[in-house]
Design goal:
The complex is a heterodimer of chains A (356) and B (326). Chain A has 356 residues and is α+β, with helices and mostly antiparallel strands. Chain A has 13 helices and six strands. In chain A, the strands form two sheets. In chain A, strands 1-2-5-6 form a four-stranded antiparallel β-sheet. In chain A, strands 3-4 form a two-stranded antiparallel sheet. Chain A is elongated, with a radius of gyration of 25 Å. The chains are: A alpha+beta (356), B mainly alpha (326). Chains A and B meet through α6, α7, α10, α12 and α13 of A and α1, α6, α7, α8 and α11 of B.
Chain lengths: 356, 326
């Protein structure tokens, strides 16, 4: 059953995975910056308790809608007390929620203390890097914990939809017949579906009151369910074109089983494209989750995701007076842009047929 | 031509059946229904609930409900909205109109800018403008449209130059026809910009790569060798050929356009189909959800059909017998 001559031929030229170091040298500064940005976001997601200065659900009711505080470097003489400090905010108008810095006191930032990258002595005397929300919760801490949802929704969603898409696509392209027909009809339905409308309708299935983790996986499952068939369709086309090539016929002649041909020859030959398409489809998942959570159909309070943090901005009065609640949107934007740059770069590297 | 249109329209029928059945199944999976909130209300007697159940057919099995719904759809009756207590058709018409206006204007906006910018950038490949605009295109492609919508709302709040969301002003009813048009246009500027930016960036990049590819082909060299001016070469030979995938792609992006429109409608409070659907989903108003999804699908399919017709118009190599059958 062994086909010794084929594995080397199974890769079209150009599909290789050189050492990361060499990749780094090839990459332009934009791509490097994108990679670093994503690395940072994933670090936020993985070790949230370290990066977040406070408990994301701790409510400091005396400081609702407090604006971001400026950081100051202390004079060298004061370094025994702390290197960085901020002026604590004091509410001067409880109706309008106006704050003013109290210049008489200094709030020293404790760096690498009590297991946090930076924090203050007590959450009751907080330093709000990016302001606080209407309940007096630290927006930065909530963003850091929200990265867990927003950054992993893409990875897990892509993992599900692509393993499904590659397997089914390769199978249907290689085997053809009824399976092929069914999959193509399904993907046609999907492609003529207003997918966001359908996503909204599907999100209604999620019962309220589920735990955040289960809600998260339901959202991922729903989005993968919507997106896998389009991908399978493209893989199918590629698999069908590979099917007639001499090296696949050679394996057949040598007695390789169908499954073996699909697994060892068809799938590797479409892998370059698949990796590029996977990277470029992660933003879709991130945006989908954000949109659902923004509209109140996704991750629910008190858990946070970058999307549901933005929901506060739907109130025009909030937007007018507390514009820092838009900061989570900048994180979404940066994550999406980084994946786009990275995917574009990967396309040039892995999928030369598509270079344009 | 007629045969092509008829075949494409017939093709829509199984698609619509599949999509509506799927949406029906999905809505039936949702926990509770419209009446479950009413059941919690002690002021409403169980008898009334029973009556409403019978009236709306909620106590029937799923397939019966589906076919009853389908039967009434064939009579151009999309059922009764449980939350608004009016016919779904009377709600959907004006909402769909608003969404179509928004999407079509956004599309026009992105085309009018994307094509010339794509040409200029491709003709001056690797110039400073090329680099700046290509970078900006990435920016435009990556900015989430709901975030851009929030930014524009903030902009409107700070400057006061534009109305802050909404479809029309409070005094809309008192205006004459042109006053109404002007008022609506004023409310549309920001949403159209938000929705157009993303599409524009993607289309500009596509236009650029298409022109670059075609610029080096043999027939372009021949055209140059004949002594045609650069202008004629670009506009008559290169552009004509570059438009084909451009139109195809524009057809496929209609779905994103509708989805984006739904988000922009929700953020900017435009009374469109997307916002209607969102409200209906929140209220589990099943016939309104079905009606909106159906309407959205029909809009999308008609848009794709238009794109195919446009494809034949711009590319003589494509004829009706092959268009649409892949």
């Amino acid at each position: 059953m062994n086909a010794p001559a084929t594995p080397a031929l199974a890769f079209p030229e150009g599909v290789r995975f050189p050492a990361l170091r060499r990749e780094w040298r090839y990459a332009s500064w934009v791509v490097r910056l994108s990679a670093l940005c994503l690395l940072f976001f994933y670090a936020l997601a993985v070790v949230s308790p370290f990066f977040a200065p406070y408990d994301p659900t701790f409510q400091n009711r005396t400081m609702p809608d407090c604006p971001p505080m400026g950081l100051h470097v202390a004079a060298p003489g004061e370094w025994s007390q702390g290197f960085l400090f901020a002026y604590p905010m004091r509410m001067i108008d409880p109706i309008e929620r106006h704050f003013a810095p109290d210049l008489s006191r200094r709030l020293y930032i404790r760096i690498l203390s009590r297991g946090h990258l930076f924090t203050t002595d007590s959450p009751r005397d907080p330093f709000y890097l990016m302001g606080s929300d209407a309940l007096g919760r630290d927006l930065f801490s909530r963003i850091v914990y929200g990265a867990r949802v927003s950054m992993f929704v893409g990875l897990i969603g892509v993992a599900i939809s692509f393993s499904l898409g590659i397997t089914v696509g390769a199978l249907s392209g290689y085997v053809g017949g009824l399976v092929d027909n069914l999959i193509m009809r399904w993907s046609e339905i999907e492609m003529s579906l207003p997918s966001f409308y359908f996503l909204l309708a599907l999100a209604a299935i999620i019962p309220p009151g589920l735990s955040t983790v289960i809600t998260f996986f339901l959202i991922v499952a729903i989005m993968s369910f919507i997106s896998w068939a389009g991908f399978a369709r493209i893989i199918r086309g590629m698999a069908a074109s590979v099917r007639g090539l001499p090296y696949v016929q050679a394996v057949q002649a040598l007695g390789g089983s169908r499954w073996r041909i699909i697994r060892r020859h068809i799938i590797p030959s479409v892998m370059g494209y698949a990796i590029v398409a996977a990277t470029l489809s992660i933003p879709g998942f991130i945006l989908g989750e954000s949109a659902l959570s923004l509209l109140g159909l996704g991750i629910q309070e008190p858990a946070s995701s970058w999307g549901n943090l933005l929901a506060a901005a739907e109130d025009v009065q909030n937007l007018r007076h507390y514009p820092w609640i838009l900061i989570p949107g900048i994180f979404i934007f940066l994550a999406v842009m980084s994946f786009n740059f990275l995917g574009d770069h990967l396309r040039d590297r892995l999928d030369p047929s598509n270079a344009g | 031509m007629v045969r092509f249109l008829v075949r494409r329209l017939l093709n829509m029928i199984p698609l619509l059946l599949g999509i509506t059945l799927l949406s029906f199944l999905v809505m039936s999976l949702a926990p509770g229904d419209f009446l479950s909130t009413l059941k919690m209300n002690p002021q409403i007697s169980p008898l009334v609930i029973k009556q409403m159940e019978a009236e709306f057919g909620l106590n029937q099995p799923l397939m019966v409900r589906y076919f009853r719904w389908l039967w009434s759809v064939l009579h151009l009756d999309l059922g009764f909205s449980l939350a608004y207590h009016v016919k779904v058709t009377s709600l959907i018409g004006s909402r769909a109109f608003n969404t179509v206006i928004l999407s079509a204007s956004a599309m026009l906006f992105s085309w009018v800018l994307a094509i010339p910018i794509g040409i200029v950038v491709a003709v001056n490949q690797d110039s400073v403008w090329d680099r700046i605009l290509s970078f900006l295109a990435f920016f435009g492609m990556s900015v989430p449209n709901f975030f851009l919508a929030f930014l524009m709302m903030y902009f409107a709040l700070q400057t006061g130059w534009f109305p802050i969301g909404g479809t029309y002003s409070v005094d809309y009813a008192t205006l004459d026809f042109w006053g109404r048009v002007a008022d609506r246009t004023n409310h549309l500027i920001l949403p159209v910009f938000v929705l157009g930016v993303a599409g524009m960036a993607g289309l500009m990049r596509l236009m650029r790569s298409q022109i670059l590819e075609i610029k080096n082909s043999d027939f372009v060299r021949t055209a140059r060798a004949k002594g045609l001016s650069e202008r004629v070469v670009i506009y008559k030979h290169v552009l004509r050929n570059a438009l084909n995938p451009f139109v195809t792609m524009a057809g496929y992006s209609l779905g994103d356009l509708l989805g984006g429109a739904a988000l922009v409608e929700a953020v900017m409070n435009l009374q469109g189909l997307g916002l209607l659907l969102l409200d209906a989903v929140r209220a589990l108003d099943i016939y309104l959800v079905m009606g909106s999804v159906l309407m959205g699908t029909v809009l999308l399919l008609l848009g794709n059909l238009l794109a195919d017709v446009a494809l034949v118009a711009v590319d003589p190599r494509v004829d009706f017998s092959s268009a649409g059958s892949q």
